[in-house]
Amino acid sequence: NAGVTQTPKFQVLKTGQSMTLQCAQDMNHNSMYWYRQDPGMGLRLIYYSASEGTTDKGEVPNGYNVSRLNKREFSLRLESAAPSQTSVYFCASTRGGAGQETQYFGPGTRLLVL
Amino acid sequence: AQTVTQSQPEMSVQEAETVTLSCTYDTSENNYYLFWYKQPPSRQMILVIRQEAYKQQNATENRFSVNFQKAAKSFSLKISDSQLGDTAMYFCAFMKLPGGADGLTFGKGTHLIIQP
């Protein structure tokens, strides 16, 4: 049982390049989330997927797209990376429902955009 | 929208001492959860403790306990008998119910340093 996994662990991009961050969970959770963490800040929600087939914008969605590929996988895409997107990205998941709201986090992806 | 405020950017205590981290929040919701997460240098986010707003009893997990004051919208974390391994960033977080599907709102964190 690996929990929440993220790939890659670290990536360097040039401005304008695109890339996809991958996230998978093996806990049969319904809801999945992408957050970003900047220095001196807590985590901020980018996008979330309450259930398979649905996605919604969070607090800071500009410059990102997401795909809930199936129940296990939730990817985050940067179409044209900008230096302002340099951050640590965390994926999280939760089963959802009464008493099942605790979020479990992946190890993070550190992204540097030059 | 909710906001979470952690007013102590950094705290430092000696090993074995007790330390309290502060958190206040602002919301118009009545049903919600509150969490404390620990983030060590590895960057992994680790759940420390959670509190359901409808419960009056304060949550406790071993050396970690909270003081939840719903009317004052305050949610502090007390760490007893602090250990070197408690050195980390600590984040307070809010989750609206039901379901919590729209995610967590985090404070900016408190960097806790346990001195030997």
Distance between the termini of chain A: 36 Å
Task: Return the average pLDDT of chain B rounded to an integer.
Answer: 93
Say how many strands of chain B there are: 12
Query: What overall geometry of chain A do the principal axes of the alpha carbons give?
Result: globular
> How confident overall, as mean pLDDT of chain A?
92
Q: Which regions of chain A have little confidence, pLDDT < 50, spanning 5+ residues?
A: none
How far apart the termini of chain B lie comes to 41 Å
Question: How much helix is in the residues of chain B?
Answer: under 10%
What is the oligomer described by this structure?
Answer: heterodimer
Task: Give the biggest sheet of chain A.
Answer: 7 strands, mixed
Portion in strands of chain B: over 45%
Category from helices, strands and their pairing of chain B? mainly beta
What Rg of chain B is obtained from the alpha carbons, in whole angstroms?
A: 14 Å
Give the overall form of chain B: globular
What are the segments of chain B in which pLDDT stays under 50 over at least 5 consecutive residues?
A: none
Describe this structure in words.
The complex is a heterodimer of chains A (about 110) and B (about 120). With about 110 residues, chain A is mainly β. Helix content of chain A is about 0%, strand content about 50%. Chain A contains no helices and eleven strands. Chain A has strands spanning about 5, 10-15, 20-25, 30-35, 45-50, 55, 65-70, 75-80, 85-95, 105, 110-114. In chain A, strands 2, 4, 5, 6, 9, 10 and 11 form a seven-stranded mixed sheet that branches. In chain A, strands 1-3-8-7 form a four-stranded antiparallel sheet, with no helix packed on it. In chain A, strand 5 and strand 6 form a beta hairpin. Chain A is globular, with a radius of gyration of 13 Å. The mean pLDDT of chain A is about 90. Chain B has about 120 residues and is mainly β. In chain B, the strands form three sheets. In chain B, strands 2, 5, 6, 10, 11 and 12 form a six-stranded mixed sheet that branches. In chain B, strands 3-9-8-7 form a four-stranded antiparallel sheet, with no helix packed on it. In chain B, strands 1-4 form a two-stranded antiparallel sheet. In chain B, strand 10 (about 90-95) and strand 11 form a beta hairpin. The radius of gyration of chain B is 14 Å and the shape is globular. The N and C termini of chain B lie far apart (about 40 Å). The model of chain B has no long low-confidence stretch (mean pLDDT about 95). The interface of A and B includes residues 51, 94 and 108 of A.
